[in-house]
Amino acid sequence: MTTAFDIxxxxxxxxxxxxxxxxxxxxxxxxxxxxxxxxxxxxxxxxANMPLAQVATVSVPEPRLLSVQVWDRGMVNAVEKAIRDSxxxxxxxxxxxxxxxxxxxxxEERRKELVxxxxxxxEAARVAVRHVRRDGMDLLKKLEKDSAISSDDMERLxxxxxxxxxxxISEVDQTLAHKEKEILSV
Length: 186
Fold this sequence. Notes:
Keywords: Cytoplasm, Protein biosynthesis. The protein is built from four helices and six strands; from the N terminus they run H-E-E-E-E-H-E-E-H-H. By secondary structure, it is an alpha+beta fold.
């Protein structure tokens, strides 16, 4: 057995693809409010573009309402402008240093578009997992060719890699199904 091949590293890299997928899906707008919806927004603050999370606190007081508590009173207008200009179709109402954002219902056409986007994200995650699998299998073949591992070890380890791949792709599919159900629920 050699230390050059590490199944834990393969699994970690595959899990990274799932984590990335979950982050991307979190940014997809559904009918419900989610603080992650505003994560990609940057605010022109203090002469630089800063993530919204660095100038305000985002909370979800109700299922269809986001509350953005701006820390600096002078930044309220900049935060409001950034949210309006974000192409998310959101319209904040200002109350002092707090912005309240109602999340409107999604129409059926928009829901279907979001499902398509979710499928693209999931496919990208599957491709990433397959790339990790290919890298692992290539390394195993190289180790076997260099006589660093026996053919029995090669077969056993390749089954481990395939099992990890199958489990990870199954997790991607489950994550996608959950998000799709969330998007399509009215």
